[in-house]
Amino acid sequence: MFQRLIILIFISFVPFLFSCPSFAQTGNAYETLYTFNGDDAQDWLGYSVSGAGDVNGDGYDDLIVGAWGDENNGFLSGSARVLSGFDGAILYTYNGGSADDRFGYSVSGAGDVNGDGFDDFIVGAPLTGSSNTGSARVYSGFDGTILHGFGGGVVNSYFGWSVSGAGDVNGDGFADLIIGAPNDDSTGNNNAGRATVYSGFNGTVLYSYVGDNVDDSFGRSVSDAGDVNGDGFGDFMVGANGDDNNGSLSGSVKVYSGFDGSVLYALDGDSGGIHFGWSVSGAGDVNGDGFDDFIV
Hints:
By secondary structure, the chain is mostly beta strands. The chain contains two helices and 18 strands.
């Protein structure tokens, strides 16, 4: 049943991603609204993409796109652009601080982090620093300034490999954040990984989780899951594509309660080598039962 749900959700999104004759023959028509291109060879614009919410308060949802190969501030320094949903214009452009930052490797809308009525956004740079500790920055949608800056602090942790808004986890009225570091080994397990949930209000750590075993790569993917259990608090999810519970690299995903941080669901890949949990996302209320669903 879970596999079938994943397949159905994927098929429902396919027409929006691709235009091909098989869909045209059914009578469905799809219009390309905007096309954006990288400025230079190997910019990798579009490696990461996300809705950004209504950043500028014009009533139209906007977009954020990462280009981790951009070289504006050195080799693979990276960049990210926020684009207007209304007319496709560039609202903000940010560049990685130095060579090899890979700024823009991950991007996401963050919700209204500071409560000013404008949606904010977050960008990850997993190779920031000479030791690849990684970093992530949260930016104001209102004026583009930095609201929060987070650093990994662990050598080769790749903190910022995955970033996402987490919804309002603690019920304080401010959107919170989640950041993954899949190579974190601070517990002594090499590449076990870590995911950390931060308060949007003041940037403090609300929850922190680590992978169970060596090479789990916990935090490879992170996402807001919506309100999965209907308690009024935003929940969140973390993927660990390297988990070996059902064979080598079968992968796993955990969904956590925003209210108390407990595990709501623990899901494992069916067999070895499928990397279940490489990507995760909240899916909204797919089946209309009043509870938010999710996709892996």
